[in-house]
Amino acid sequence: MTDTALKPVLSIKDLTVFRGASKILDRVTLSLGQGETLALVGESGAGKSTIATAIMRLLDNAKVTGSAELAGEGDLLALTERQMVKLRGRRLSMIFQDAGAALNPAYTVGRQLSTTLYRTQGLSKVEARQKAVELFTSVGINDPEGRMSAFPHQLSGGMQQRVMVAIALAGSPDLLLADEPTSALDVTIQAQIVRLILTLTRERGASCIFVLHDLALASQACDRVVVLYAGQVVESGPAHDVLERHRHPYTHQLKSCVLEIGTKDLTAPEGTVPSHGQMPKGCRFSTRCPRVMARCTDEAPPLIPAREAMSGPLDHHIACWNPE
Ligand SMILES: Nc1ncnc2c1ncn2[C@@H]1O[C@H](COP(=O)(O)OP(=O)(O)OP(=O)(O)O)[C@@H](O)[C@H]1O
Ligand code: SF4
Ligand SMILES: [Mg+2]
Hints:
Blueprint: E1 8-19, E2 22-33, E3 37-41, H1 48-56, E4 63-70, E5 74-75, H2 81-87, E6 92-95, H3 99-102, H4 109-121, H5 125-138, H6 144-147, H7 157-169, E7 175-179, H8 187-203, E8 207-211, H9 215-221, E9 224-229, E10 232-238, H10 239-244, H11 249-259, E11 304-305, E12 317-318
Parallel strand pairs: 3-8, 3-9, 6-7, 7-8
Antiparallel strand pairs: 1-2, 1-4, 4-5, 9-10, 10-12, 11-12
Helix pairs in contact: 4-5, 5-7, 7-8
């Protein structure tokens, strides 16, 4: 797929989120093409979940500025809650990290899926049940008829996450937000669920934003990668470019960490992310960067095309004064 062939289904511009005096997200700008999968990667606290939750308009106690244009709907950040209720589940859905916590323990999983189908698709009870069994089959749940009457606690973590995938896809959304949907699962099940989500979204021609910790997995699984550091986009672009031709020193460090898997334990980049009260004035990565220069500590670098010939919103971009 070429960038020019992709019409943005979602276009986020200068998304900024404050919690009290802390700027949790700072002018996050990214675009997602129709049918594309985009990975958000970065260390814990980078703001990945905040982006997904802001798009869903589920952030509480936060001041949000900027825009998030969804094709055909306008700026999600400017819609009323009533308008958002109509879009959630139908145009955009979210799969949460912990399926056990997201499912309601008081209702069977069949009822929870049927209710979503009833609400988003206007099906009758009988039709919703039939469709629910079909969806359970498509997400690989064994004995889908029998599982309809199971309560969440009677299912394994992997099966619970498959139920969440079925619920998220029930309204045929064209944008799926998957917030580390596999981090509570063991490694073999993780790969299955990531593959399942990507296969099902691609079959449906939907777009997907995947929150992932692992840059290599993100690059293999997704079309585009956005690297976040301390609430800012530091590098974004086609997955292959970001993995193999990255120019930001932080992306380099993230990649080195991933390559150490198998030889020793997964390590984080050296040092720690500054706390929100102590963010450096210039580049937020300057306290850990091996390429830091005088300008970096004074002036925040803007997100610009990584190479001269590039200019489209879906091209490779970096924010760095002294890139590799
Ligand atoms: N409810 C909240 N109240 C105050 N601060 C919050 C809240 N939720 C998140 N934050 C802060 O916002 C920043 C971004 O958090 P976020 O959860 O988006 O990060 P993340 O990249 O998803 O991290 P992780 O990989 O650990 O899930 C962090 O500094 C976090 O402490
Ligand atoms: S702007 Fe400077 S400190 Fe920041 S990543 Fe680039 S070289 Fe490092
Ligand atoms: Mg998170």
